[in-house]
Write a structure and sequence with these properties.
alpha+beta, 2 domains, six-stranded antiparallel β-sheet, five-stranded mixed β-barrel, globular, disordered N terminus, disordered C terminus, binds zinc ion
């Protein structure tokens, strides 16, 4: 497609582009970055509340920060895009090179962290990052592209406290059949336009060994909640282990189907052909106590409210997709509709 081998592999074998990308390995992406805030108790408290982490090590006069907050101390914030001291142009340059070769989409794939010493309120954070590796050209289900791994070293008072590796796939979306409209995050406008021209279907759920039981339940019109067989804690969505006690063993309980809207957002943007904004996405709290993200149906999107009682039903979206949704009890029988 272009020199260096396009994402469709039509011109060359991609070697020239690979060679150019490899030259970015080991180059600095951020030098002498400084955390916007000292490690501090309010951020730790908000984090713990959001995560539901009640570990006493994160409270009181001898508190430490949760290790998994490592990256949080380096973030530049919503207003920080134009002002990132220490940020070199290397990362942007690399992205520009990939964009220019047609690898215009990006998805974060994974991150790894290593903790060397605990962070405590008052610690001043500094960090450096480098492009650790760029893979050869890989073909994935999303499309063909390159994995870029960035390594960040995070220091407190000048001492190395931990490392954070962050990997993305920069790719060209796979060619899709006209029937398929699974649009990957960040995919190009042209892919969207193409799928909008055809009848749009909802994205398929990603079913794996950890959540297969949930989808089997949906197939039988049962909303199954995992229950830890050691401590009895219910959990949803499905996970391989218990967040309360760590036990990997579980059975299930079936939801009775009653719930209330715990929170919701109304989506206006970005447009997605399968959904048709505006529509309400709700976090429904089931009577059993766990919460599920779903749609509220049978009510106009702008009349969904926190605390609204809802009841489970299963809705068929196309010939092979049925999903649990929640009908607003107060609006039963009305024709108003949220998708
Ligand atoms: Zn448990």
């Amino acid at each position: 497609m272009r020199e260096g081998g396009g994402p469709d592999g039509s011109a060359g074998d991609g070697d020239e582009l690979s060679e150019r990308l490899k030259k970015y390995q080991g180059r600095a992406a951020t030098v002498g970055g400084v955390g916007r805030d000292l490690v501090n108790a309010p951020m730790i408290r908000h984090w713990c509340e959001a995560m539901g982490d009640t570990n006493p090590a994160y409270e009181g006069p001898d508190a430490v920060a949760p290790p998994t907050m490592l990256q949080a101390w380096t973030m530049s914030g919503l207003s920080g895009h134009a002002d990132r001291p220490g940020r070199s142009g290397t990362y942007d340059e690399l992205f520009g090179l990939l964009d220019g070769a047609g690898y215009t989409s990006v998805v974060a794939t994974d991150c790894e962290q290593e903790y060397l010493c605990p962070l405590r309120p008052g610690d001043e954070i500094t960090f450096d990052s480098m492009i650790e590796s760029v893979s050869g050209r890989k073909t994935t289900k999303l499309g063909t592209g390159y994995f870029v791994t960035t390594r960040m070293d995070i220091r407190a008072g000048g001492e190395l406290a931990g490392t954070h590796r962050f990997r993305i796939l920069k790719y060209a979306p796979a060619h899709r059949s006209p029937k398929s409209t699974q649009t990957a995050p960040g995919s190009s406008g042209s892919a969207r336009t193409k799928s909008a021209e055809t009848k749009s279907r909802r994205p398929r759920p990603v079913i794996n060994r950890d959540n297969a039981g949930f989808w089997e339940g949906v197939g039988r019109h049962r909303l199954l909640i995992q229950r830890c067989t050691a401590c009895g804690t219910l959990r949803f969505p499905w996970l391989p282990g218990c967040g309360a006690c760590g036990c990997p063993d579980w059975d299930t309980v079936e939801s009775g189907g009653e719930g209330t809207v715990y929170s919701y957002v109304v989506m206006h943007h970005p447009p997605f052909p399968a959904f048709g904004p505006p529509y309400a996405v709700a976090l429904v709290e089931l009577a059993e106590g766990v919460r599920i993200v779903s749609n509220v149906v049978g009510v106009p999107y702008d009349e969904v409210r926190i605390g609204m009682p809802v009841r489970l039903e299963f809705r068929c979206y196309d010939e092979d997709l049925e999903l649990p949704v929640f009908r607003a009890a107060a609006f039963a029988g009305r024709s108003g509709e949220g998708s």
